[in-house]
Amino acid sequence: MRRRESLFVTRPMTPPLAELLPMLEEIWRSRTLTNNGPFLHKFETALTDFLGVENVSVVANATLGLILALRQLRVRGEVITTPYSFVASSHAIRWAGAEPVFADIDPVTLNLDPASVERRITSRTSAILAVHCYGVPCDVAGLETVAARHDLKIVYDAAHAFGVRLAGTSVLHHGDMSVLSFHATKIFNTLEGGAIVARDRNAKIALDVLGNHGIVDETTIPALGMNAKMNEISAAFGLALLPHVEQAIQDRRAVAERYWQQLESVRGIRCVCPPGVPGHNYYAFPILVGAGYPISRDALSQQLREQGIYARRYFHPLIADLPTYSDAPSAQPGELPVARDIAARVLCLPMFPDLDPENQQRVIDVIREQI
Ligand code: T4K
Description:
Elements (H helix, E strand, L loop, with lengths): L6 E2 L8 H14 L7 H14 L4 E4 L2 H11 L5 E4 L6 H8 L3 E4 L11 H7 L4 E7 L8 H11 L2 E5 L7 E2 L2 E2 L6 E5 L12 E5 L2 H10 L21 H10 L3 H19 L5 E3 L13 E5 L7 H10 L2 E2 L26 H9 E4 L7 H13 L2
Parallel strand pairs: 1-13, 3-4, 3-5, 5-6, 6-9
Antiparallel strand pairs: 2-10, 7-8, 9-10, 11-12, 12-14
Helix pairs in contact: 1-8, 2-8, 3-4, 9-12
Bound molecules: ligand T4K.
């Protein structure tokens, strides 16, 4: 019998090699490899146009982007955040010199619940770090109302939210800053990379200085900066890939529609991202395995693995349950009931633009065969 190919949760996009090679040749000729080079500038401009936002600072990855954003906004004390995210969201708060405090999530969007956020606010709270998990927009109006009432900054971790639109405009317009990830596993990638979207030009200039060791010029180094620069090869890769992203999002939509058609009627399975939402980017395809389904989430994950399908439990365990954070009062058992329930039931199915119908059917068949 022919061995079936392994199916992973994602498969990174690469630009057509022929479109990248001339740029690589230019880099080889110029020997400008990094430090604010010409491809970085071109990429930043192209990205700004594509995203329909202003004040974009490209960085080496989203984790550094989050740290820089929090530092630039001078957050201190406590930052309220979601326990239901990739660990980098909370790590960034610690590296920026503040303490994460966990609030619970909304059972439908799986993003921070503004009412739970408000209950966690103390005199030490300086900011909210919210995540548009799986590219589903947060309740931005609710969070912004809470932030305004208590004079808090908002940083959106938009690692999953490339290209997401809300009420016809980019979701990146919300908050004091938003941070995108261009990691290989994301909608759009530069191998490793990311970008910070700031509200005003001065913030962008300050972020660029902070991300270049705090250097203004050879003898002027006024700030405690770090190295968050993107190199020229990553920038060229991004420039070559950007024209293909719109089509990739269309292809993701087609994959999502095939899942919806065949999984929505399965008892005990809930597709987290609902069909027909304009502006969604189909970053992931999470399902929740409920009591009505014959086997547990972990048993289903194992069944898939036996067929060479590597679905992933993003985001289990909760950040709040990791040893680095589990001592926090907001992380104690009994707190965060919604996030704990979701983390115990979630499974992200393979989702990438070139997931062909035949391979996708293998995933669907395993899920349906358990009934
Ligand atoms: N905030 C949020 C909400 C995030 O989700 C992330 C990153 C960040 C912040 C931080 O962004 P960056 O600082 O990374 O820019 C992956 C990614 O490494 C991570 O970037 C991402 N979130 C997270 C959700 O997923 P792992 O450890 O689960 O990845 P890994 O290596 O197991 O890859 C998953 C699958 O993808 C593999 O089974 C195979 C496939 N793959 C992966 C890579 C890297 C490939 O086919 N080729 C590849 O090159 O964290």
